[in-house]
Amino acid sequence: MTYQTQIAEMNQRIGSHGAGWAGIDGEAVARMRLQNRFKTGLDIARYTAGIMRRDMAAYDADPANYTQSLGCWHGFIGQQKMIAIKKHFGTTERRYLYLSGWMIAALRSEFGPLPDQSMHEKTSVPALIEELYTFLRQADARELGMMFRDVDAARAAGDVLKERQVLAAIENHQTHVVPIIADIDAGFGNAEATYLLARKMIEAGACALQIENQVSDEKQCGHQDGKVTVPHEDFLAKVRACRYAFLELGVEDGIIVTRTDSLGAGLTKQIAISHQPGDLGDQYNSFLDCEPVTPETSRSGDVLINRDGQLMRPKRLPSNLYQFRAGTGEDRCVLDCITSLQHGADLLWIETEKPHIEQIAGMVDRIRAVVPNAKLVYNNSPSFNWTLNFRQQVYDAWVAEGRDVAAYDRARLMSVDYDGTALADEADERIRTFQADSAKRAGIFHHLITLPTYHTAALSTDNLAKEYFGAAGMLGYVKGVQRKEIREGIACVKHQNMSGSDIGDDHKEYFAGEAALKAGGAHNTMNQFAA
Length: 531
Hints:
Number of strands: 14
Largest sheet: 8 strands, parallel
Helix content: 40-55%
Number of helices: 19
Radius of gyration: 28 Å
Shape: globular
């Protein structure tokens, strides 16, 4: 419904109530409706699921249409990210948010900072989704509110052309509300627990849930050691639980991202149930590190499996975990991915130990031989030393090409001594094009950085503390922060406006008319930033 249509409808409805509603203005109601386009989290989930489905189809047609996101640990951070994207690029298309379980554990748990091991409160996950969308909706309300003020100013000045231009911008306003890919970890329990949490996350607005194949009570960060996977049937029960939650809530095209940690996980807690040779349980068990056993060599408490007619004893550690054969990680990843896609997953996530396009592509090629339109979400992780990894990749490529690398020490390539060298420049160019190159070669539909704003908050705070508490004093803040905000057009320099004071003034005028006591008068110091 257009802005003008809503005004007409509201005026008609208000008029039908006679003098009792005479103080209500139809245009004010229309404005408030536009500023609150999404009434519930489910409205958001349905809307953003449609965006992701269209983006996935566009990527299938042309891998240059890959998508991106940054992980955000607070609603304000997500809001400022989307405001910046609209400011610099004019559109939010193909830009999402990522909700990282790591950052919830480290920054949002009532226990205080925790490692990424699913020890934080599960309710903090849907709470952050709701918070992110509250701030994104407020960004819409703020931007539209400024447009409404421009309309009023144009009318007061009798500038009909300006009024028409602003009204057209209002009609074509693009929301800051974008898809969130939300980390549900390993489901925080059994399949029922996964379903209950998935419901809460979807009700909060999540259209895409990312779930991993680790044991929920032994879950580890994807870039730490000690990861333990579960048999496929256990994992698929949780995938189905997520799909049931989407369907129950009417988000029929919700997206499930299945993550495999098998590349770095050498352990399992369970031996899979197998009903016949070659089934999923048998395939999972085929990767176990086993040794043959006879009645004479068997021990009390042994668990035995039949492998090709021979009794085998899976090697069990003192922790009571079983280990996989070394070198089977990629094969297990490929099987995990194919199995997930064949049982309802929409996108894949392969957690790797380094950002290497051909390593990822080698697995994706095998997956696509079975599922041709397989697509990945990939973690451009801060856990990777990107500078060192790519300098070493260039070094190795030069060695393979027979080029002279005598000036470089491969083990010291992170050193500042190599900054500005030909090798470092080529490595930086590979980093710059990594996302586009891997989207084309390795089937990566969505590139994200899990916890970038954790690092940017630390870096900017360090810089401010160093200057403000040092010799620069107040100039440390003015020169390092405020002056840059003004020069670069950062919306938050008018922090009262950002927090909603102007929206509040508009509402006061709607509610009380000329009697409204507004905050944005001549003595508001935010007027110093009008120029």
